[in-house]
Amino acid sequence: MNNQVEPRKLVVYGREGCHLCEEMIASLRVLQKKSWFELEVINIDGNEHLTRLYNDRVPVLFAVNEDKELCHYFLDSDVIGAYLS
Predict the structure, then answer these.
(1) Per-residue pLDDT of the chain (85 residues; tens, 9 = 90+)
(2) Which terminus of the chain has a lower count of CB atoms within 10 Å, N or C?
(3) Whole-angstrom Cα distance, residue 26 to residue 8?
(4) Which domains does the chain have, with CATH numbers?
(5) Cα(40)–Cα(1) distance, rounded to whole angstroms?
(6) CA 6, 12, 13 angle in degrees (round to 5)?
(7) What's the chain's Rg over C-alpha atoms?
(8) Model pLDDT, residue 2
(9) What's the burial of 12, exposed, middle or buried (CB within 10 Å: 0-12/13-18/19+)?
């Protein structure tokens, strides 16, 4: 029996050249050194469905395991702290 806990997975939906996206990703990379989670960055440009969903709100931080949006525009330290605890 495998007792390993699956790591939490976060996705940042954003676009290239977006300073808010770059700031959120950099902050999450720092947090990754202290907390155990996977991070994936997905560029929404070129994907019609993702562009429709997130176009005006990038970056969007999405918790894959819970299938829910955690925050957008800026990293909400209270929300991410509660999520990672």
Answers:
(1) 455 667 899 999 999 999 999 999 999 999 999 888 999 999 999 999 999 999 999 999 999 999 999 999 999 999 999 998 8
(2) N
(3) 18
(4) 8-84 (3.40.30.10)
(5) 28
(6) 130
(7) 13
(8) 53
(9) buried
Handedness of CA 57, 75, 22, 40 (dihedral sign): negative
CA pair distance 83, 70, nearest whole angstrom:
9
Which two three-digit tokens encode residue 15?
Answer: 């676009």
User: What is the rounded distance in angstroms from the CA atom of residue 43 to the CA atom of residue 6?
Assistant: 25
Report yes or no: 29 and 37 within 8 Å, Cβ to Cβ: no
Question: Within 13 Å of residue 85, how many CA atoms lie on the same side as its CB?
Answer: 6
Q: In sequence order, what are the residues at sequence separation of 6 or more whose Cβ sits closer than 8 angstroms to the Cβ of residue 38?
A: 7, 8, 9, 10
